[in-house]
Design a protein that fits this description.
The chain contains 5 helices and no strands. The protein is mostly helical. The chain has one domain.
Length: 99
């Protein structure tokens, strides 16, 4: 059984190809790390696939809506655990614009 990980060149190539497809079609600001994180925390949460072709198939199935949903949820959770003081610029900027 071949262990699939993010250091595997075929996996990296597949992620780069999927990244370029998503950037071209929907998400021009999407980063490699976003897809890698999505795969690790959502698609392969219970473990990497047993074979390379299964991993590549998983990567090619990634769609923009799922990545956006994951990134949005992650940002909300991350924001919940940050102190309010980190958001003062946003709060102050919002207050000035509404005046």
């Amino acid at each position: 059984m071949e262990k699939i990980d993010f250091e595997n060149r075929q996996i990296q190539l597949s992620i780069v190809l999927k990244l370029h497809q998503l950037q071209r079609n929907d998400l021009n600001r999407l980063l490699y790390e976003h897809i890698e994180e999505y795969l690790e925390h959502v698609v392969w949460k219970k473990g990497f696939p047993a074979t390379l072709h299964e991993a590549v198939n998983d990567i090619l199935k990634v769609d923009a809506a799922s990545v956006i949903q994951y990134l949005t949820s992650s940002a909300i959770v991350e924001g919940y655990y940050r102190p309010l003081s980190e958001f003062t610029n946003l709060i102050n900027k919002g207050g000035k614009e509404s005046e």
